[in-house]
Amino acid sequence: MKSTLILTAASLIITTSCKNATKQNEEPIPKETKIMELSNKEKAIAVIESLENGAKEPIAYINPEKYIQHNLGVADGLAGFGAVMANAPKEGFRAKVVRAMQDGNYVILHTKYDFFGPKVGFDIFRFEDGLIVEHWDNLTPITPPNPSNRTQLDGTTTIDDPTKTEANKTLVTNFVTDILLHGKTDLMTTYVNPTKYLQHNSGIADGLDGLGDALAYFKANNLDLQYDTLHKVLGEGNFVLSVSEGKFEKGVHSSFYDLFRIEDGKIVEHWDVIEPIAPLEERKNDNGKFGF
Predict the structure, then answer these.
(1) Does position 17 have pLDDT exceeding 70, yes or no?
(2) Residue 197 and residue 150: Cα distance in Å, rounded?
(3) For labelling, which of 8, 34, 104, 231 has a CA lying 20 to 30 Å from the CA of 176?
(4) Per-residue pLDDT reduced to its tens digit, 90-133
């Protein structure tokens, strides 16, 4: 009798445990264990870094029916992107994203490339429904450190002050408009920290003195540093990128991408890429360099 009771109890325990296990298996997977959808920023980084690592998956982040290309040396659509990859040198490409920002449907990347030679570049991607539908960029060769021993890519990378994005974008918009477009240099310290201004332009030293010396050099040698049109301002937190058009050095039609870091309402750090704009006869698409 005792043995029968023990067996019956054991049977009940096993049956109950099996039912519980079955019930647990049928329950939905907790949200925290589900695979999370990549952010647009993560997708853009994956696309750029696939140039180096050869990953195939990131191509799915580009809309195959609509991919508007503003790099004037690349044909429109996925076919243009594929042609670039097909013409990669034997040693392949190199691409390392140093900074990444997201502003609404736009993602901005600051990247070190070896892309037919060592380069630094800014890429802007526009997304629709989670897919890339438009791309802009600005590229320039990597050069030695500037007079303050800063490179085109080093410096702060941490995004802070997410609640100040719009205020910082307004600050940069006004800086570019007042100082770079209209030459109101008397307002410089309204926008730039006079005691802390870290410069990553290859030919300019830190501080307002360094900027002043560069402007004086351009003027003395009849060189252009002329901003004519501000096309776009994008940012995230303490980083803001402006995209402008003008003339550089000997009147070369150029695109200016300027990245600013803002701290306590003042610009304290600057990176840039200046690229000549290809003439019409050399372009592989008709979308224009800007077209925001």
Answers:
(1) no
(2) 12
(3) 104
(4) 888 999 999 999 999 999 999 999 988 999 999 999 999 999 99
Read off the pTM: 0.86
CATH number of 162-278: 3.10.450.50
Half-sphere exposure of 198 (CA within 13 A, CB side): 17
What is the per-residue DSSP string for the chain?
A: -HHHHHHHHHHHHHHHHHHHHHHHHHSPPPGGGSPPPPPHHHHHHHHHHHHHH--SGGGGGB-TT--EE--TTS-SHHHHHHHHHHT--TT--EEEEEEEEEETTEEEEEEEEESSSEEEEEEEEEEETTEEEEEEEEEEE-----TTS--SS-S------GGGHHHHHHHHHHHIIIIIIT--GGGHHHHB-TT--EE-STT--SHHHHHHHHHHHHHHTT-EEEEEEEEEEEEETTEEEEEEEEEEETTEEEEEEEEEEEETTEEEEEEEEEEEPPPGGG-S-SS-S---
Two domains, one topology: 40-141 and 162-278: yes
Is the Cβ–Cβ distance between 168 and 262 less than 8 Å? yes
The two tokens of residue 165 are 């994005």
Residue range 40-141 in CATH 3.90.25.10: no
* 200-218 burial code (b ≥16 CB/10 A, e <16): bbbebbbbbebbeebeeeb
pLDDT in tens, 43-56: 999 999 999 998 98
